[in-house]
Every structure is written in C-alpha cells, then in structure tokens.
User: Fold Phosphoribosylglycinamide formyltransferase from Hermanssonia centrifuga.
Amino acid sequence: MADIHERRIVVLISGSGSNLQALIDALNTPALSQTRIVLVLSNRKAAYGLTRAQQANPSIPTAYLGLQPYLKANPDRTRYDYDVEVAKIVVKEKPDLIVLAGWMHIMSEGFLDVVCGEKPFDGEEKVQKPIPVINLHPALPGAFDGAHAIERAYEAFQKGEIAHSGAMVHRVAKEVDRGEPVVVQQVEIKEGEPIEAFEERLHKTEWEIIVKGAAKMLDEVAPIQSSRRLMDFFSRHTPFK
Ligand code: GRF
Assistant:
C-alpha cells in the first residue's frame, strides 16, 4: 500500500488524560482515521496521561517539562521562555495539529509565536505554515472562561442563572478560552442532581467532542486521501445501522 500520509497530532496534558485516552481510542477508526499521536507532553511528571500514552499500542512517545523546574534551572528565564521551550519540543515533531487536552497552563504568546511561525524554533528555522492549536474547555463559548468552569456553571444553575452548560473545543488564540469555537455541545444539568453527576455527563461529552474537534481541524488542514475518505464516509453513514 502506498505510504499514505498519516496526520500527526501532539497532545499536551497535565492530569489524568481521559481526553487523551478518547483520542487514542479513536485512532484508526473512522472517527479519526489515518492519524497518529506522535508525542504526549505533560507539565506534570505524575500526570496519569503519560502512563496512558506509554501503555497505548503502539506506545506513544512522551515528554515532560515542568514550569517550576525549568525556571529553577534557568533563573534568568521567564514564563514566556518556558512556553517557547514547550513550543520547540512540540514543533520538532512536525505536527499537523496540537491538542491541549487538560493542559492546565494559560498558553502565553511565547507558545503561539513559535507555532504560528513568528519566532524560530530551532536556530533561525521557523514554522513554514502556522500549526493549528485547539483546546478543550468544559463550558460554552464566553460562559465560564478560565479555571473551575464546571463548579461555576453548577453554582450558576443552582442560582437559576443558567438553564444548562456545555463543553467546547476551540482554536487557541492569545485571549484565554476565547478562540473561535470548533465544536460546541450543550450539557444538561438536572434539577437536584449532585455536581458529580453533572461532571460525569460533561466529561463524557468532552470525550466525544475532543475527537470530533480534532477530526474537523485535521480535515481542514490535512485532509485524508479521497479514496479513504469515501470509505470512512460510508462507514460512518451506513443507512442500515
Ligand atoms: C477536562 O475537564 C478539561 O476540560 C479540563 O481539564 C480536564 C482534563 O481532564 N481543561 P483529563 O486530564 O483529560 O482527564
């Protein structure tokens, strides 16, 4: 079989990696075909997501770069420099797409300057074509930007301020959680249910939309071979399901 170009994804994590796991499980299925996760990078050494990557079959290369250790080892460097360093590790894998799946850091301009090709990533070498970056956020566009969105939405529902919440995959722009939405999905909050029940429903939604969001972005920037696309289309749209 001709060497078909596999689309390359780098995933950034900080925690359990359940969204990374959703991507791993979708690889080489019609939902995310002809795609490979070429690196999982964590800013926390203990992130279970690193284990998920190592236990994948085939296993996925991992890397770790913590902010505090970096700053301690480079006292003259800043948070901006750290984000440039993160971007360099990522860009060297030549990804078609970068996915922030629970990356618990606000990406500063340092990261985006490198992945957009404004700053060199190796000597003077710059990215030729800006690499798209998507982020998963457990709220609707503009609703609960930043941290603790799940808890804040649940509180707002208890006060009658909102009727439901949601989750989204959005492009990463320089303003936190404000990039253009790629996939948006409402998530119901049921009257009287504990926050755990809402959170579980929300995470299940995230596992779906992170795959949909990655596939949608890849189809935009690195569409698969037409023949394979037709096969996938028909496998997704079999009328006799
Ligand atoms: C997700 O809820 C994501 O929305 C938030 O962090 C969580 C990551 O979960 N940013 P996991 O590490 O993928 O399990």
Residues 13, 15-20, 49, 101-102, 136-138, 203, 206 surround 5-O-phosphono-beta-D-ribofuranosylamine (CB under 6 Å). DSSP finds eight helices and seven strands in the chain. Helices lie at 18-26, 48-55, 67-73, 79-91, 109-115, 149-158, 195-221, 226-236. The beta strands are 7-13, 35-42, 62-64, 97-100, 133-137, 164-171, 181-188.
